[in-house]
Amino acid sequence: MIFDFEMIDSFYKQLDSKIFEIRKRLNHPLTLSEKILFSHIYYNNQTNPVRRGIDYVDFLPDRVAMQDATAQMAILQFMMAGKETTAVPTSVHCDHLILAQAGADDDLKKAGITNKEVYEFLSSVCNKYDIGFWKPGAGIIHQIVLENYAFPGGMMIGTDSHTPNAGGLGMIAIGVGGADAVDVLAGMGWELKLPKLIGIKLTGKLSGWSSAKDIILKISGLLTVKGGTGYIIEYFGEGAESLSCTGKATICNMGAETGATCSIFSFDKSMSDYLIATGRKEISDFASKNKNHLSADKEVYDDPEKYYDQFLEINLSGLEPYINGPFTPDLATPISRMKEEAAKNNWPTDVEVGLIGSCTNSSYEDISRAASVVKNAISKKLTAKSEFTITPGSEQIRSITERDGFLDLFRKIGGEVFANACGPCIGQWARKESDNNKINTIIHSFNRNFAKRNDANPNTHAFVASPEIVTAIALAGKLTFNPITDTLVNADGENVKLAEPEGLDLPPEGFGDIESGYQRPVAGQKEEKIVVDPSSDRLQLLSPFKEWDGKDFLNLPLLIKAKGKCTTDHISMAGFWLKYRGHLENISENYMIGAVNFFNGQTNSIFNQSSGSYDTVPQTARVYRDSGSGSVVVGEENFGEGSSREHAAMEPRFLGVKVVLVKSFARIHETNLKKQGILTLTFYNKDDYQKIREDDRIDITGLSGFATGKQLTVTLTHSDGTKEKFQANHSYNESQIEWFREGSALNIIRKSNKKNVI
Ligand code: SF4
Fold first, then answer.
1. Ligand 1: which residues within 6 Å by Cβ?
2. Is 293 a catalytic residue?
3. Is this model's pTM higher than 0.85 or not?
4. CA geometry: angle at 655 spanning 649 and 659, to 5°?
């Protein structure tokens, strides 16, 4: 079955004329990223947004994918828009909430109980709004997207950082926060600063123990975890063409570890083969007909330094396997140097667990190569010294690797097969080791290895490598084992050497016809009312925020004057609170609890003007809200930097904060606050921050004449009766002023769809 065939057909039919227009507009040879980005512009009348790294552009992606943890709040918001269906094809994937503990069957059963209400909610809203729903156990979001939804030249957003995985099929695929997803679901343009471009030419060909994973491990080391920020990485060259489609996806997936907006490869035979093998020959035909639009122009490849903002060249023929880590994915060590580096840094070299799979590396090619290592080891009477686990990326992959005997090979060396879900990659791993502080080493083929990412132990040294290297090291039980040069002692006491891995890009027996775990939206569910148990502590239906009453804000108490760095993590902490992502009231109990109070240097301890004593931030905000006054939050520079977390903007609105006044905002957080109807202001004179006292009452006046570029006035009334007045700037445009007046951006859409409001 081909999903969204009509949309894809229509996309390719229009591509030629769109590229013609783009050429006229840009008037220079085009990179692949430019072709895709500019063929997805939202408004045709946007003024020439051609300055990479400077201009903000509204895009219209072709589709949205959401994982179960982030989908909850995004969908709860979308429900308020009053739409009958999502503006673009959308899918939800139940992968993040499954705990890996006792093997696939038991873990899935347990997840079905623990997350019952979340799954039922997501399943029913997907039916109602015509959203594709992938049940728990169906697979991990990015693998499912690659197998079913991605198409060359398309553009998608996903509420998960590793959405760029779909770049392996030539798609611009970008990880976003829930607020961005809501924009696209509700039919608004999606804003992105036009990315800069890094061109990477791959020459030569991989061989032996080296794999696509080693390319991105090396690049992560070169670019570091920040070097790709604000860039799209575009790969090309004969080395790129020699890689399998799923190998390309691995590289794009882990490009997120450089901070890159996304990564992309141009359409080639490997993509065509993968599309055909996964039952999408028609899409392969469409793409083949448009091949010249699905790669950069020849002039770009001939003179890449002229057209890319940065350019790198990597020879795959000389590439050796890498092991990255611990604690960061950009600490890249070629395998031949690991003995030296481990000794120098005192890394524990006994490997307790080797883990393969995840969304990053669980293709047929990955699993077959790892299985060939195991097969060879068994034939040479070797057993695994470390624990070994396998997380298939999808039911599709699990079923064919079971059919073809690979999973049995893993079981023969003690391998444990977990559910087709994120599991240990996201800390959803009930590890058998009980000492949560033991210094130890694990190695996996996932993408991230920050402290506590895989288990709860901050002393777990997690290393990242390709599945075949992870397998070899799990057999040896030693981080310093290099299968290219070293031997192992087998059951007969002989020194034996592992043969180089062998694998196949695609399954010779095909992907088969399996029960994939997809739930097709059921016809006739549109009228269904979505019911959420009012006593649930994980889900809560939202109510629209009130529109502005047309009056100036007068006599608002200061809630908190935050000192120093205040990221979205300080504003809305993660960790324990993640389980409340679908429950605004409960998650609002973490509002600003990580921010430092300017007046006492403490967190979550602020002066409550009503009681005259110190209290928590959420409790004090609630008191001010319930008294009818609301409150003001004050902060310093780059307020709200960090991941785009819509809760960080929804919580203050829910708790009655009316104004956030800071020295400067992180742009995304500022926009998120505006969307929720909070007035965002910046000090005209940054020194005015010093004037604000703990027990101030604050007026914001001039709102009746609220207009683009026009300052508003802030008046402080101190407790001694004195007053101070100063000007504040804002960055609202006309439509954003409407968001403020109407109470939120969603309220505007809601009004225009009144008949469908739930
Ligand atoms: S497997 Fe890991 S990287 Fe992939 S979606 Fe799940 S948590 Fe994210």
1. 95, 140-142, 160, 162, 358-359, 422, 425-426, 446-447
2. no
3. yes
4. 60
